[in-house]
Design a protein that fits this description.
- There is one protein chain.
- It is flat, with a radius of gyration of 21 Å.
- Helix 4 runs antiparallel to helix 5.
- It has 16 helices and no strands.
């Protein structure tokens, strides 16, 4: 018996009857030889972790565009916080931690430079539309590995696609990531907003903090327990209604006071204009697109606009700015 088979046997013994067992996975689009050491979900986690798209997350905006300071969250640190919270919940509910971790690590691979501001402008520009969860599937199915994709299991791909607020994940592990994504960003965005001087604890509505707690630590603890205590030994994963209502209210407060109407968003217009300009340039100069994006056009019979969106969406904030400088700003020169 291989180590993988031993792990699968252990899963069957100790996990909840509602967990997604590795041995029962719906599999991959292309057959792979089973790894003797790792389950299919462990392989998926590793494939995501070693992907180029994952590494680029470290230089993509979470909420605060171009902040001065090393302690503000990026898309990568957000992803790692989601992973940690989701694993805690999955372990307590005896769900499959490896599947949960793989979905959490991959859930934001499709995000653009400059956060949701970049996502909105690409949706405006691309005739086929654009959103980060569909783009995440494009990344893992078509764009990584020079067009071959990562060949992930159906359960992991479903979790990436369905992590949005209105998504309906096929596994409880996917549902855990969906809930923990919200837990992570609400709490770390409050923390970052306080660090930036945009919020104080006293500014948060008391009707919500009375339920959730009066510090980031207390609120995280309440939200995590709100899932675990309400969902343990049940065939669904949900947050206790009273806590869920308070979380929804706090999320709305953050949209109104930080995400949409604060100085943290003051540079978004410039970032969006930058992306519009890059899009216009590459639509005309499609021969300058990297080969993996061009191949997707030919292999899948797709439009050039989609290839341009794929290229721009994959850029980090800094790379997009450098490309703009390279293409549109004059460079100093000296006589030789």
């Amino acid at each position: 018996m291989t180590i993988r088979e031993q792990t699968e046997a252990i899963e069957e013994k100790i996990l909840s009857p509602y967990a997604a067992l590795s041995k029962n996975s719906l599999g991959r689009d292309r057959e792979d030889d089973p790894c003797p050491l790792r389950t299919c979900y462990q392989q998926d986690r590793d494939r995501i972790l070693h992907s180029k798209a994952f590494r680029r997350l470290k230089d993509k905006t979470q909420v605060f565009l171009a902040p001065q300071g090393a302690h503000y969250r990026t898309r990568l640190t957000h992803t790692l916080e989601v992973q940690q919270i989701a694993r805690t919940v999955a372990r307590a509910l005896r769900l499959n931690e490896d599947l949960t971790e793989a979905i959490a690590l991959g859930h934001d691979l499709g995000h653009t430079p400059f956060g949701h501001a970049g996502e909105r402008v690409l949706n405006e520009l691309c005739p086929e539309g654009f959103n980060h969860y569909d783009q995440g599937i494009r990344v893992v199915e078509r764009l990584e590995k020079d067009g071959r994709g990562l060949n992930l299991t159906k359960e992991v791909r479903d979790g990436i696609l369905q992590h949005r607020v209105d998504g309906k994940p096929m596994t409880l592990e996917g549902k855990v990531v969906q809930l923990c994504d919200k837990i992570a960003y609400i709490n770390h965005d409050i923390d970052d907003a306080m660090r930036a001087g945009l919020l104080t604890e006293e500014m948060l509505p008391r009707e919500f903090t009375a339920v959730l707690g009066h510090s980031v630590r207390e609120r995280l603890d309440t939200m995590v327990h709100g899932i675990i205590d309400y969902s343990i030994d049940k065939p669904q994963v949900e947050m206790a209604p009273r806590i869920k209502d308070a979380v929804t209210g706090l999320r709305s407060f953050m949209f109104n006071h930080v995400y949409l109407h604060s100085i943290a968003k003051s540079e978004e217009g410039k970032a969006q204009d930058l992306l519009r300009t890059l899009y216009g340039y590459y639509i005309v100069h499609d021969q300058e697109l990297p080969h993996e994006y061009v191949e997707a056009v030919w292999i899948y019979n797709e439009s050039w606009s989609r290839a341009v969106c794929d290229y721009i969406a994959g850029m980090t904030d800094a790379y997009a700015i450098e490309k703009y400088k390279e293409l549109f700003l004059p460079r100093p020169w000296t006589m030789t």
